[in-house]
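Hi, here's the filled form for the chain we discussed.

Project: internal
Contact: R.S.
Residues: 231
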Amino acid sequence: RSLEYTVSYLSILKAGGAYLPIEVSWPKPLLDSVLSDVNPSVICTKETFSSRITHSGVPFLVLDGDWLQQLKHEQKDLPLKPAVKTSLDDIAYVVYSSGTTGKPKGIQCPHRGAVFSFTWRHQAYPYKEHDREACNVFFVWEMLRPLAQGIPMYIIPDDTIYDPPKLAQFIHKSKITRMLFTPSLLQALLEYKGIDLQRSLRSLRQIVYCGEVVTTILRNKVASLLPWIQQ
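And the returned structure, exactly as it came back:
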């Protein structure tokens, strides 16, 4: 999760393409299988991970160092292309299943689902002035929600999201007002000894649950410890 990740995603969508997130933590055979299945037009990555991601004949865009200046230099003589029109039924991104019942399968997700979901959320839970949203857990989905409304999106580093003290410090220091949690992640944060929840999470005004069953025990615990937060 990084600035380059976000820039790549937005650029792909603006170009009318579809986006496939791949986890570099996947075993090499799985990475090779997914890339062979999808046959991408281009692979955006960083130098650190490029040796693990190989696919014959596909160009790499390595987003390290002076990549922006390099792109400007390479593209300076190309004519500006007109905007690409997309419809609600065009593919926006592809995600792969976990493969628990066999080989992982690609799921093609059209713009329709994301557009309808974001539209409803923006109307049901409108952003307020000075809101700041922190994203990591379902990054491919989360990051567009605040950006589509001109709200600052704070990227939670991968080495922070599952470290309760670091996460609490990040929320406090960045003055985060909204964040999506899996119930187990929030439970771990609430139960970690030594964290001053009243101080660290004071800026939070709203949390969204996703990915797991939300128990009434957890919901009541949040209401008791952090009564100012909307769930």
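Let me know if anything looks off before we file it.
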